[in-house]
Design goal:
The protein has 9 helices and 10 strands. Helices cover 39% and strands 18% of the residues. A 6-stranded antiparallel beta sheet has the order 1-2-9-4-7-10. It is globular, with a radius of gyration of 19 Å. α5 (169-183) crosses α7 (201-211). By secondary structure, the protein is of the alpha+beta class.
Length: 265
């Protein structure tokens, strides 16, 4: 299965975070053993995901899997848990008994909630026990269901957030810039986004590198491509490249090919 092109969400259950965490956490999710078994049909399967720069906790509740990123290949044994930044195309090679619980943060969300800067995770896979207490991970694994696991992690993140400084100029400005870019139809360039905050484009570049780990132009290119491709695949007849800041179809097709390595079809 390939993200965006295929319905990789079909084997997962999802739950949004509470109101206080919504600016920082996109969702909690857990693969359904029943739906995974039906999909896999007792065969190994692959899930390919494109770059998103979203720090994600993967807590392994089932079989071992192999992970391939733009930086190397890794084997994740049963019972091993990791943090993945997804700064490159990330592919999980799964066994039929795959069972994964995950927490996906928005870019910069990890720093806002836990005080951990995500650029330090570029190009690497991090054991999750370096981020979360081992006792908490153990409790999550022995919990009886998805909602119990979510509650354990959510309560921990809320407690951490409440102890963090309320004002963080870097992350707040980057979050506001991302929101502005989205609400403005994904048309603004870096200078226009910087102008919203009355700062120079070099300054906003520095802020994005500090919070996310790459320049705003590159990040917005990823956001635009992901949103445009999802919209195109959902309704090809009504889709308009101009709505996502592309000049025409050729401009869009080239951007999608650069982002995914695949043709839109």
């Amino acid at each position: 299965m390939t993200e965006l092109f295929d319905n990789i969400r079909g084997i997962y259950d999802f739950s949004p975070p509470c109101e206080e965490l919504r600016p920082f956490v996109e969702f909690f999710s857990e693969s359904s053993p029943e739906r995974t078994a039906t999909f896999a049909a007792d065969k190994d399967f692959v899930v390919e995901m494109f770059p998103s720069w979203t720090p994600t906790f993967w807590i392994n509740l089932g079989a071992p899997y192999n992970l391939t990123t733009g930086h190397g290949s890794y084997r994740v044994p049963p019972g091993s848990d990791i943090l993945v930044l997804r700064d490159s195309t990330t592919t999980r090679h799964n066994r039929p008994g795959d069972h994964l619980f995950s927490v996906k943060f928005f870019p910069g969300g990890l720093e806002a909630v836990l005080g951990i800067s995500q650029p330090g995770f570029i190009g690497t896979i991090v054991p999750l026990n370096r981020i979360l207490p081992a006792t908490l991970i153990a409790r999550v694994k022995t919990a009886g269901c998805f909602q119990q696991r979510k509650t354990l992690l959510q309560d921990f993140l809320l407690a951490s957030l409440s102890g963090r400084p309320k004002k963080d100029h870097y992350t707040a400005l980057v979050r506001d810039s991302i929101g502005f870019f989205d609400k403005a139809g994904m048309h603004p360039n870096t200078s226009e986004v910087a102008g919203r905050h009355f700062i120079h484009s070099r300054t906003i570049n520095r802020y994005f590198h500090h919070v996310i780990g790459l320049a705003p132009k590159k990040y917005f290119t990823i956001v635009r491509a992901r949103a445009a491709l999802a919209s195109f695949l959902a309704d090809r007849k009504q889709f308009s490249p101009e709505e996502f800041g592309y000049y025409d179809g050729s401009h869009l097709y080239k951007a999608i090919r650069q982002f995914t390595g695949r043709r839109m079809g």
